[in-house]
Every structure is written in C-alpha cells, then in structure tokens.
Design brief:
6-stranded parallel beta sheet, UDP N-Acetylglucosamine Acyltransferase, domain 1, FAD/NAD(P)-binding domain, alpha/beta, 2 domains
C-alpha cells in the first residue's frame, strides 16, 4: 500500500474510473495530495485482464471512498478531477457543472515539464516524464499520459487523449476528442481531426480526417471510428 496523503493534505475527488486511474493516483501521491473519493457515474466495465476500481483503491492507505453520483455533495476546498477518459466524459462534465457548478483542477506530475510559455485549460492531466513545448495550447480535460512529448506551438483541443510514449511534432493540431495511441508519432505541421484515432505505433505523415481511424507506418485510413 501507498500512503494516501496526510490528514491535512488537499483532498482530491475523482469522477468516473478508467484504466488510466492508476496514473492519476500516482500523480496525486507524488504531489502529496489525498484521494478522498471516487464518484462512479456509471457501472464499471471489466475485461479479463483489467483491474477493478475497488482493487486499485486498495493500493492506497487509507483507501478513498467509492460512491455513486447521486451521493456526491461538494465540499469547500476539495479539488475535482476526471477519473475517466471515455468519450462520455464530456456529458459528465456538463452535468457536474450544471448541477454543482464545479471547477476542475489541473494535475501535473512533478517529473513532467510544461513550458511556462504553454497554456493549459481546465482539468488537464500531464503524466510522469512528459514534456509540453513553448507556445502550445492544451484544451480543457486533455489527458497526456506518461512519457509523451508535445512539440512547440501546437494545439491540443479539448478532451483529446495522448497515450503513453506518443510524440506530437511542433505546429501540429490534435482535434477535440481525438486519441493518439501508445507510442504513435505525428510529424510537425499536421492536423489530426476531431474524434480521430491514431493507432498504437502508427506514424502520421499526412493530415488525418475527422473521426478516421488510421494505423501503420506510414499511417493510412482503416475505417471511420465507430463503424
């Protein structure tokens, strides 16, 4: 078990859970924060080789409380962050702002580097050993996982996900809700459209259309996301 902050540490409340929640735990612990609660907005979907949120919560001492969305009540001074990276999180944020007027915190791992010349929106996560270059604009609720590099003067739009070890070149735009997969690369001055998915290990040499799934080296169109 890992010590879950001190009794007087700032409290973090997470909304939803995904396979990325361990990275959020890691960042919060490294920052000396305390994960106080995980608020589940929907039933957890487990696969054969994944771990449940209850098992992961057991890594922390004391473990955070797990509750349903109907039980949640805001507490002054708490920090709020998304524990889920699913596409449905856009609706979850809308509901929480409408119902409770919540503002979301930004979490940056202490081993990450974010240029002071970059701008970050609300609810951004930047994981361990990642780097964000100068002049880059990161939109609301972007999730940048471990070991990611984002080049200078790029734009990462709201709710995009950058998976571990991927690299985004300078002067590049990653569209809203797009995903750049594990170890993938996007060369400089390219546009990845809204909702697009760049598969793990792919190398993007040309612009990617909205809602397109691309894979391979060089990346090529495979299908529309959701087909």
């Amino acid at each position: 078990m890992i010590q879950n902050g001190s009794d007087d540490a700032p409290r973090v409340v997470l909304f939803g859970a995904s396979n990325m929640i361990g990275d959020i735990f890691d960042c919060a612990c490294a920052r000396g924060l305390r994960i106080a609660a995980i608020v589940m907005n929907q039933a957890e979907v487990l696969r054969e080789r994944t771990r449940s949120v209850h098992e992961r919560a057991g890594w922390l001492s004391p473990p955070p409380r797990i509750m349903g969305l109907a039980e949640f009540r805001p507490v002054a001074g708490d920090l709020y962050f998304l524990g889920t990276t699913s596409p449905a999180r856009t609706e979850l944020v809308r509901l929480l702002k409408e119902r409770h007027g919540l503002a979301f915190a930004t979490l940056i791992h202490p081993t990450a580097y974010v240029s002071p010349l970059a701008t970050l929106g609300e609810g951004v996560f930047v994981g361990a050993q990642s780097a964000v270059g100068p002049g880059t604009a990161i939109g609301d609720h972007v999730f940048i996982n471990r070991g990611v590099t984002v080049g200078h003067d790029s734009t990462i739009k709201a709710y995009a996900r950058l998976q571990p070890g991927c690299n985004v070149g300078g002067h590049t735009t990653i569209g809203a809700g797009a995903t750049i997969g594990l170890g993938a690369g996007v060369i400089e001055e390219r546009v990845v459209g809204d909702g697009a998915f760049v598969a793990a290990g792919a190398i993007v040499l040309e612009d990617v259309a909205e809602n397109a799934l691309v894979a391979g080296i060089p990346a090529s169109f495979k299908k529309r996301v959701g087909d």
